[in-house]
Design a protein that fits this description.
The complex is a heterodimer of chains A (537) and B (313). With 537 residues, chain A is mainly α. Chain A is built from 26 helices and 10 strands. Chain A is globular, with a radius of gyration of 23 Å. Chain B is mostly helical.
């Protein structure tokens, strides 16, 4: 029988509030049944003895255990001070109205639960209900910050506040990918994803608690060195030099990637992770822009060659700093517009969220690469031979493109033109499922978190991919088009984790690679399936 | 007169509380964009797939178009028939729809009663006949009875659904049950009052007339003279006051959810009203305590966003 966990249980001491047993997770079809009995590998007791692990089977942040009771009490005080600030316009004008609305009007109808892939795939564990963490925060707020809250809590929903509650809540805020699928189905409009985002902010902005990959190695490193990858401007330029050589060798096409061209029409912002993990993506963009005769440039200024803005997931201050840097660089280069490369969260960060941060000449127009590419591909200037992409292709919709920006069709119109065997996932577009790597998960792998991601948060996406290719022979290579670096990272990891390349010949890549692969005057294919070229030269 | 005083007081509380809610929403600072697609005021060509104006090349050079008709096409079935719940949570819809529609019909009934009262005001007496009054009376009986039947079954259904479904029960507090029971008691009293003493809602007409005239009687029958009639007035009045004090205010606050958050896709154009609001926000001075924020209550958001913190230099 399923064990029920209630919000008030967050305060009760136990070693593990929510444990996933082998067999609890949603089943996978053949030939992946052997994964159905897999459990999350146990944490190494030696490695976690000084950190908080009492929420579930994994650890995302690794919060140090307080040394004594006084330290615990001080942390509780700081939490309450941060919680108060979430409801003050001086501190949280950025999200105050949406937060207030969502905090005050949830009817606990649970409609959101069935929309959440993490909840569904976890075997419907209570702590993964979208409203669970929101309800914990709501109860703490009502009880400890509202007048008379300690009395009314008995009637409206009680919870005790201690260090255990707080440590678990911090960890729990990193079990949601912020895909906001829950918010789309709420009959009222309550956004539990937003409340989760605000919980993360409270911990970061008041208590300095955030996952290392997102803060220390993420935004901090990006602002200090230039990129969350750790690449400084010189290293970025070296990488791009290497990409130019590689692309010429692979495709026979001479690529010339421009740097710091003042007055160019377009500043192209790539996720710098592409330069290291998927250099062909950066090369393919260059080939397309070059062939289309666009006036464009990359920036070698610190921060200017890395589109990522991890602040979007956890910290408005860090978010603002990175967004302002991006805009300042574009202003100095005097470009007409910024085009966001294949990176979903960077799209949303600079195009939508920063739209109400950038003013005057910092407010430089921003456009999605999906739109720029559609203009090129459907414009007729480039010739394509779609037969070169004669393999099954499906499209993963990054949540930040579709639900957060309404950029749904441009990428599809491209695929319909260049990929004759394109098929949709179910559901897709604004109803899509997250890759499981959203909100920073794709770059987080502390302790056993990567296993949790592959087994739980990315599981729904893996099922969707398998369903999209249902009926295709196992030996036929198949391509998952994921036009987002974080999504690509998560999909790469599930393909490796479930041995999907060996068992089903499933490969992945971006959209620009498919475009270049189908260009009629390309001498050699860009896409390889293992050692096999995708078409014969 | 005591009943009337109670009703006046409760109506006053309703307007004060609802007014506070609305005023607070209007005076909150403009937040960052957090829209969620599909945005229902998009033009049809985009709405069909949940697209936005950002799908267009150089979208900022074009005039932003929106469709009020598309918004209505979504909002009307959503408000009246709770379409979202029908699509996403069918088992709850079967009790939630009659519950909500019953309440809507009660509001409609009250509106009709007010109209009826206005129609008889000039003479101050209850003259029989008149096509308008006959129509209003007929409609009042129809909306009243259908609303009461839906309301009683819907609120009872909501209560039992919350009680027997562990998904709902485990997250329900005393107040959640109290709210439903409260509404159920209103529906039950009103239903029984109509059934046993006032099938044509003559008493309701008389009481509404009295509300508008400070207690003048429309006819000899006064609902407050019966236990069921009096109970109905008390529950209805208290409910009117209670709704805006609870999360049930989503009844009207839903407007802000949709228009100020989910569908707020207004771009920031140089020199425009959005930019003016942003500049105001950027002058605010945060006090977040984490070291990397470097807020001291004197530096503005603009200053903080334009500087790299010491730990990063």
């Amino acid at each position: 029988m399923k064990e029920t966990v209630k919000p008030s249980d967050m305060a009760k001491p136990s070693e593990c509030l929510c444990h996933i047993e082998p067999g609890d997770l949603s089943p996978l079809p053949p030939p992946y049944e052997d994964f159905n009995e897999k459990a999350i590998p146990p944490l190494n007791p030696e490695k976690v003895k000084h950190i908080e692990t009492s929420l579930d089977d994994t650890v995302a942040i690794g919060i140090p255990k307080p040394a004594n009771r006084e330290e615990e009490e001080e942390l509780v005080r700081r939490f309450l001070s941060g919680l108060k600030k979430l409801f003050e316009k001086e501190n949280n004008w950025t999200f105050l109205q949406p937060l207030l609305l969502s905090m005050e009007h949830c009817t606990k109808c649970q409609t959101c639960s069935d929309a959440c892939p993490v909840y569904e795939m976890s075997g419907k564990k209570d702590i993964h209900r979208p409203m669970f963490r929101a309800e914990v925060l709501r109860r703490i707020y009502n009880k400890y910050l509202k007048p008379g809250g300690k009395i009314t809590a008995k009637l409206t929903g009680d919870i005790d506040l201690n260090w255990t509650t707080i440590a678990r809540l911090a960890e729990l805020s990193y079990r949601c990918t912020l895909c906001r699928r829950c918010a789309t189905v709420c009959p009222i409009g309550v956004d539990n994803g937003l409340i989760n985002h605000e919980i993360r902010k409270l911990f970061s902005q008041e208590m300095g608690i955030a996952p290392k990959e997102i803060h220390e190695k993420g935004t901090s490193q990006q602002l200090r060195v230039g990129s969350s990858t750790g690449m400084n401007p010189l290293a970025a330029k070296d990488s791009v030099d290497f990409i130019q050589e590689e692309m010429e060798e692979i495709t026979g096409w001479k690529v010339d990637i421009p740097w710091d061209v003042e007055g160019a029409d377009i500043l192209l912002l790539h996720n710098a992770g592409e330069m290291l993990a998927w250099p062909e993506n950066v090369g393919a963009f260059a080939i397309i822009f070059q062939a289309a005769g666009l006036s464009w440039t990359l920036s070698s200024e610190t921060v200017g060659y890395d589109a990522v803005n991890y602040g979007l997931w956890y910290d408005d201050v860090q978010f603002s700093r990175v967004a302002v840097r991006h805009a300042e660089i574009a202003r100095r280069l005097k470009v007409k517009k910024i085009v966001m490369g294949e990176c979903g969260h960077a799209h949303k960060a600079l195009t939508v969220i920063a739209d109400r941060l950038l003013t005057g000449d910092l407010n430089i127009p921003r456009e999605s690469a999906m739109v720029t590419l559609e203009k090129i591909v459907l414009g007729g200037k480039l010739k394509f031979d779609p037969r070169r992409n004669d393999f099954p292709v499906t499209l993963h919709d990054p949540c930040n493109f579709v639900r957060a920006m309404g950029i749904v069709e441009p990428q599809r119109r491209i695929l319909r033109k260049i990929a004759p065997r394109f098929r949709e996932m179910t559901p897709h577009g604004v109803d899509n499922y997250c890759c499981g790597g959203g909100s920073g998960f794709a770059i987080m792998s502390p302790y056993n978190f990567e296993a949790w991601r592959n087994l739980v948060s990315s599981r729904k996406k893996f099922l969707q991919i398998l369903n999209a290719f249902q009926g295709e022979p196992a030996e036929i290579p198949k391509y998952v088009c994921a036009p987002c670096s974080n999504c690509k990272g998560a999909i790469r990891d599930i393909i490796n984790f479930y041995h999907a390349e060996e068992r089903s010949r499933i490969y992945y890549g971006g959209l620009v690679e498919l475009i270049v692969n189908a260009m009629a005057d390309m001498k050699k294919p860009l896409i390889q399936f293992g050692d096999d070229p995708s078409w014969k030269a | 007169m005591g009943f009337y005083l109670l009703s006046y007081l409760c109506i006053l509380v309703f307007f004060l509380a609802a007014g506070c809610h609305v005023y607070r929403q209007w005076t909150l600072p403009m937040h960052v964009r957090w829209e969620l697609y599909p945005v229902q005021h998009e033009v049809s060509g985009k709405l069909v797939h949940g697209g936005s104006y950002m799908e267009d090349w150089n979208w900022w050079e074009k005039e932003q178009r929106s469709s009020f008709l598309n918004e209505l096409k979504y909002m009307v079935p959503e408000i009246l028939f709770i379409r979202g719940l029908w699509k996403e949570n069918r088992k709850l819809w079967w009790v939630s729809f009659p519950f909500h529609f019953g309440l809507y019909l009660m509001i409609a009934t009250f509106g009709l009663l007010v109209l009826h009262a206005f129609s008889v005001l000039p003479g101050g007496a209850p003259p029989a006949g008149g096509a308008l009054r006959t129509l209003l009376s007929g409609m009042t009986v129809l909306t009243g009875w259908v609303g009461l039947i839906l309301g009683v079954t819907g609120s009872a259904g909501m209560f039992f659904r919350r009680l027997i479904d562990p998904e709902l029960r485990d997250y329900s507090s005393f107040v959640d049950y109290f709210n439903i029971v409260f509404i159920f008691l209103f529906f039950l009293f009103a239903f029984l009052a109509c059934l046993f003493t006032d099938p044509l809602l003559e008493g309701a007409k008389a009481y509404t007339f009295g509300l508008l005239t400070g207690g003048d009687s429309l006819n000899a029958y006064a609902p407050a003279q019966t236990f069921l009639g009096g109970g109905t007035i008390v529950f209805a009045s208290l409910l009117v006051a209670y709704v805006p004090l609870t999360h049930m205010s989503h009844m009207f606050m839903k407007y802000f959810f949709y228009h100020n958050v989910k569908w707020d896709d207004a771009p920031n154009r140089r020199g425009g009203p959005v930019e003016a609001a942003v500049l105001k926000n950027l002058a605010l001075k945060p006090t977040w305590k984490a070291k990397h924020v470097e807020a001291d209550g004197r530096k503005s958001w603009q200053e903080i966003a334009s500087s790299a913190p010491k730990e990063m230099k």
